[in-house]
Automatic annotation (TrEMBL):
This is YiaAB two helix domain-containing protein. It comes from the Bacteria. It comes from Puniceibacterium antarcticum. InterPro entries: YiaA-like, YiaAB. GO terms for cellular component: plasma membrane. Residues 12-64 form the YiaAB two helix domain. The chain crosses the membrane at residues 12-36. GO terms for biological process: DNA damage response. Keywords: Membrane, Transmembrane, Transmembrane helix.
Amino acid sequence: MSNYVQKPSKAWTMFTYAQFGIAAVMMAGGIFFLEASFSAKGFYAMAALMLVSSTAGITKSVRDAEEGTRLYNKIEDARTERLLAEASGTDAA
């Protein structure tokens, strides 16, 4: 029992990298040209870096949890198939 897992295309991957790059440049430019003190600009820059870092962490955690569930479901499916094969009297491969 194998399920097809759709992977993102190279075009989509490049689009997401470009989107991130453009957003980072726009944010950096906005902070740089902000009419505020150097300490305020530093605060905004640190907050932006922390936001990007925490977003990557959340994304990884959600993906890891989903993949863990997928593995758990595969193990449960294999156990169920073995139990059904034993109950029907056929050999489980």
